[in-house]
């Protein structure tokens, strides 16, 4: 009981950016003490949910290290999550860990994060017309909620549901349905249908969230492009995202295409612009491509042999 109360108290504070660092350290202590168990996993998941109530907050420089520490530690207790919770946690990891790894000064960590993003993009299903329609519906619902019309619609919906329920109650005034054991109750059928509908909607929501998280990762990576050692990796990531553009929704496809066009513009600038040393400002990949395009290939020797064929296809 004390553990549950402690988690509830942490949950009430962890969503506040000014209190996150202290609250997350208390949550870490619970994980390290082995207090996160199947009987407390519901409260712990609620704690993480409160921490991610505003996904953008986890990328603030003042707290991003604490977010990474918390979610890296939480990864060790995911076996207690159900399937839906695991899927949601994977999306949070993209926000709280992978995206923050893109802000590192360590080239190995940066490349590893980019590799995870590429794998996650490849794992996305190809977008269907229904996915694009779902996105349009979600955006329309968001616009309605912001205009204040959603509450009125919800009230009308509740009134309609109440009327429907009263109609169902009077549809069998003599209770004959209860005597027919082989006939499923209407209420059970309705409950099953609602559960299926809720599961499908949750799956669609998680898929939308995953795509949005990956799009954010792409944008955060692109902002590091001014740093020379990141450019090759970002070039490869941008190309991979562009080649996989069919896995993003209509609005996201436009963003990915703009991102790739921006990367291509930067490549052209580097190829034609002079650096302070007077040499062409190209990255390692492009230097190798340029070098080997002028080398000769021998059938019997390695690059640079006495053959007369140019390696025009190397690295290109």
From TrEMBL:
Cited PANTHER family: F7O18.3 PROTEIN (PTHR36749:SF1)
Biased composition (Low complexity): 151-168
Organism: Aegilops tauschii subsp. strangulata (Goatgrass)
Sequence segments annotated as region (Disordered): 145-179, 186-205
Name of protein: Uncharacterized protein
């Amino acid at each position: 009981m004390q553990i549950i109360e402690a988690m509830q108290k942490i949950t009430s504070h962890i969503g506040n950016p000014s209190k996150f660092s202290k609250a997350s350290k208390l949550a870490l202590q619970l994980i390290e003490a082995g207090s996160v168990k199947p009987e407390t996993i519901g409260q712990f998941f609620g704690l993480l949910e409160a921490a991610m109530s505003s996904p953008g907050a986890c990328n603030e420089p003042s707290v991003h290290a604490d977010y990474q520490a918390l979610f890296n530690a939480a990864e060790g207790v995911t076996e207690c999550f159900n399937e839906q919770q695991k899927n949601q946690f994977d999306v949070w990891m993209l926000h709280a860990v992978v995206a923050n790894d893109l802000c590192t000064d360590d080239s190995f960590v940066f490349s590893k994060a980019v590799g995870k993003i590429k794998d996650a993009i490849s794992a996305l299903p190809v977008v269907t017309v229904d996915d694009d329609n779902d996105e349009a519906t979600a955006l329309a619902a968001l616009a309605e909620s912001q205009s204040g019309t959603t509450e009125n619609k919800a009230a009308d919906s509740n009134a309609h549901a109440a009327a429907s329920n009263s109609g169902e109650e009077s549809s069998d005034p003599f209770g004959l349905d209860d005597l027919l054991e082989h006939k499923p109750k209407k209420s059970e059928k309705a409950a099953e249908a609602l559960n299926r509908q809720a599961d499908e909607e949750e799956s669609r929501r998680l898929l939308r969230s995953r795509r949005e998280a990956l799009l954010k990762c792409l944008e955060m990576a692109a902002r590091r492009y001014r740093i020379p050692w990141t450019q090759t990796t970002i070039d490869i990531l941008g190309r991979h995202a562009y080649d996989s553009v069919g896995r993003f929704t209509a609005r996201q496809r436009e963003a990915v295409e703009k991102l790739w066009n921006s990367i291509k513009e930067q490549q052209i600038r580097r190829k034609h612009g002079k650096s302070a040393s007077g040499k062409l400002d190209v990255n390692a990949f492009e230097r190798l491509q340029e070098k080997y395009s002028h080398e000769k290939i021998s059938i019997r020797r390695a690059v640079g042999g006495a053959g007369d064929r140019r390696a025009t296809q190397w690295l290109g």
